Structure formats: structure tokens, C-alpha cells
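Encode chain A's predicted structure.
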Amino acid sequence: MNDIIFSLLQVFGFVALIAVSVGIIELYLWSHFRYHDKNSIFFTSVFSFTFLALLFMNIGGLLSIKNFVIFMFWEIFLIYTSKKLIKGKNYLPYLLAAPAFLGLLALLLYPFLFQIYLSFHDLKLTTIMQWKQLGTIPFVGLKQYISVFTVPPLAEAGFFKLLFRTLLWTFVNIFFHVLGGFILALLLSELKIFRGIYRTLLVVPWAMPQVVAVLALRGEFHSQYGFINVMIKKAIESFPWLASIGVGPVNWLSDYPLLTCILINVWLGIPFMTVIILGGLQSISKSYYDAASIDGATYFQKLKYITLPLIKPVLMPAVTLGTVWTFNNINVIYLVTGQSGGTEQADILVSALYKAAFTYNRYSYSAAFAMVIFLILFMISISYSKMFEEKNTDKGAA
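Encoded structure for chain A:
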């Protein structure tokens, strides 16, 4: 009981700390934006907030000349912004967005920059004590980036083999996500009764926690007791001639781990794409279809010349997001193939990255690996965006 109370007090203390920090940030910015036209703001802010900065740096163990200089430059920048740019007008959005922006800055930007720093150094088990004792890591330049392409992250697969497997994994999943989602969305859009019930049932695989869904489906691929092999055995009992053509139970998890992961991920991803496409279909005016029907257009002509062009503005962002998510989807691979160990036959780039970092403890190598994956995804996203913009431009010109 005492442990529970102590844990609750810790949670409340953390919440109170966040609330106080947000209040200080809001007061700090409000004083600059509200009194930007006061001649004394420069001297007042420099002395008062410099004192507070020194106090908090000392409490947090961050007191140093470098941090003090950074804070002074920030203070001068904020004074200039409040006096010359904002000028006391519409500063409320800045006040409301500042805590979230600083939180994202701490949670996203700092780890990203630290990862870039690690990728140019050599942090591993043999150098981690040097970092702990001296605060320095050996600088190796581009060595880690060269190692990404020349040194296999795993025992059985190198970078380019993993890249090909990842692209195959992504393409197959996205293809069937869009195809299955599009077919189901078309069917749902035509339903007149029980449409809400079907939508609810369809969203269940996507709404269910992914760990639960993946582990449940993993059991269905069990070699002896899984639903799929049980149904194959029942089919052979009913139709013995199937055994003569080679049909039989399959060791899915050991013989076809990547195919098993693809089948599970396709089942998990179709509901999301269905919901997105269904929303796009409902935004298309019925007058287009009515006019096409009057002109004698068939169902497939309506699909080709009305539905597909008008659904693309909704579909392209969904495909871009789906590509990034699928490319980085370690959950299915991790849970199906035996967590951090297990077979390497289904590993993709991100699962290989995970093993390199947390199984083989190659931290700087993994940081460089992560940056390469980031650049690949960045180029894919840019390509999607340019392709979408060019198509829209061509249609506008036409």
C-alpha cells in the first residue's frame, strides 16, 4: 500500500513539476511580448532572467560558460523578435505553442542531433567507459557510414540484401493495403443497411493493440495447432487428392518467416487504408456519377474517370504515411520472429538496426545506420510529394 501511495506521489510530483515549468515558460515569454515597447525591457530581462538562468542551471547541474553564452544569445534574439517582429500583436498563439514546441525540441531534436554526433564517433562496449570517465568518444569521421555498406549488421545478411528485402516488404504490404482497402471501401460505400456495424468490425484489427493482434495471429500460424494448418489438414481429410499434389501443413514461422510477417501486416494495415479511402469516397459528389449514368457510362468507366482521379488527393498522403510506417515497422518482425534474437530470414533494415544496437552493442554503427535509413525514407517521401505535385500541375494545365 505504501509503495502504491509513493508511486502516486511521484506521478503527482512529476505533473506538478511539468505544470510549474510550463508556467515559468509562459511567464517568461509573456513578459517579453507584453512589455516589448518598454525601454527598460532589455536591461530588466538581461539581469532578471540571467539570474534565473544561473539559478536553474546550477540546480540542474548545467552551469557552464557555454550554456550561459547560449542563453544570452537566446535572450537577445527573443528581445529582438518581440520588439521588431511580433510587437505585442497576436502573441497568444506563440504562448500556447511554446511549451509543446520546447517539449518536441527536447524529445525529438536533441536525440536526432545526438544521433548525428554518435554516427561520426565510435561508441561501443570497449569505448563506453572512456565516455563515462572522460566524457569523450573517439572521432572516426565517415568510418561508420562506410561500415554500414561494407560490414554486415547481422551474421547472415548485409546492407543491400536487407535493403532489397525491406523494399519488397514495403511494396507488397502497401500494394495489398491499398488494394484491399479500396475494395472494402467500395463495398462499404454501396451498403445501405448495417453500414455502421461493418465499419466497426472492420476497424477492430487496427484499433486493437498491435502487440495483442500480432501475437494472436502468430498463434494462428503455429505448425501444429494454428488455425491455418488445422484447416489445411481438414481440407486434406475431405479431399485426399490434395496431398498428391503436395498440399500439406506448413512450418510457417521457421520456413517462411517473411511471408508470415507480410500476411499478418497486410491484415493489420487494410482497415486503416479502408477508413481513409472510405472518407475520400464519401467526399465525392453523387452528381458526377448521376451525370455519368445519364451519358451511359459503365461502372468501371465511372471508377476509372471519376473515382480514381478524385480519390488521389486523399490516397497519396495515406500511401506516403503507410510507406514510412511499413518501412519502419519493427513490431511485426520483432514479435513474430522471436524478439531480439531468432531467425534473420525475415529481418529488414530497422530490425537489423535494433539487433546491431541492442544485441551486438554497436551504438555508433547503429546511429550511422539509422541516419542512412532516415535519408532513404526522406528521399522516398520527397519523390512521392513531387510525383503528386506534378500530376496536379498537369491536370491544372489541362
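The mean pLDDT is 81.
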